[in-house]
Design a protein that fits this description.
213 residues, alpha/beta, 6 strands, 34% helix, globular, AB_hydrolase_fold, Alpha/beta hydrolase, hydrolase activity, hydrolase
């Protein structure tokens, strides 16, 4: 069984590197693409889905914004199983913070320059939201193209989606990005911040071995 994996907004696969899967699973990582200027979201999803071979059974696994992406990909190329970690099943599960961005359109009007490597304020926000006590946090965020980051924040805030049946959701109970109080996850990682796949990898691996049997 191939499992196609999409990591989080701006994150490479380092945040997922310690997770363990059943021996019969083959992981295929789908890297984030840089959006084309004014590219519609559905066109971007189509490009992200190009790597998936539908001639054989497969599953999808997404972390954070990757969880949103794999659910969109599943609409084009249905998977046997869809698992999301630190992510939401529909726009109804957005936090008040994200909904404020949607209503005010603030992410759309923010200058791209705010998302460059020198924008210390962006990374201070990342630290506070994702895991303020984790000294390695910026090691997980390697995709730092300013246009991609601004585009991604826009897409998360604007995302509209009806919940798909049977999507398996794993959330940390200390996650500030996607607070657990707005969702009814299938699995809860106790003490898990938004970075729980890296910090609570043993608990997550146990769940993944149950799910992907």
């Amino acid at each position: 069984m191939k499992i196609y994996v999409v990591s989080g907004l701006g994150a490479d696969f380092k945040v997922l590197e310690r997770l363990e899967f059943p021996e019969n699973c083959e992981l295929v990582f789908i890297d984030w693409l840089i959006p084309e200027k004014n590219e519609p979201f559905h066109s971007y999803v189509e490009r992200m889905a190009e790597k998936i071979d539908v001639s054989e059974p497969f599953s999808l696994l997404g972390y954070s914004f990757g969880g949103i992406m794999v659910q969109e990909i599943n609409q084009l190329k249905p998977a046997q199983k869809v698992v999301i970690m630190g992510s939401i099943r529909s726009d109804k599960e957005k936090s008040k913070f994200i909904k404020t961005g949607e209503i005010t359109k603030l992410p759309r009007i923010l200058p791209t320059g705010m998302f460059n490597d020198k924008a210390a304020n962006v990374y201070s926000v990342v630290r506070k939201l994702f895991d303020p006590k984790n000294p390695r946090i910026l090691q997980y965020f390697r995709v730092r193209d300013p246009y991609y980051l601004k585009w991604s924040v826009e897409k998360v805030s604007e995302w509209k989606f009806e919940e798909i049946p049977n999507v398996i959701q794993i959330l940390g109970d200390k996650d500030i990005v996607f607070p657990i109080k707005y969702s009814k996850p299938d699995y809860v990682i106790k003490g898990g911040t938004h970075l729980f796949p890296a910090t609570k990898y043993k608990e997550v691996s146990k769940i993944l071995k149950e799910v992907f049997v």
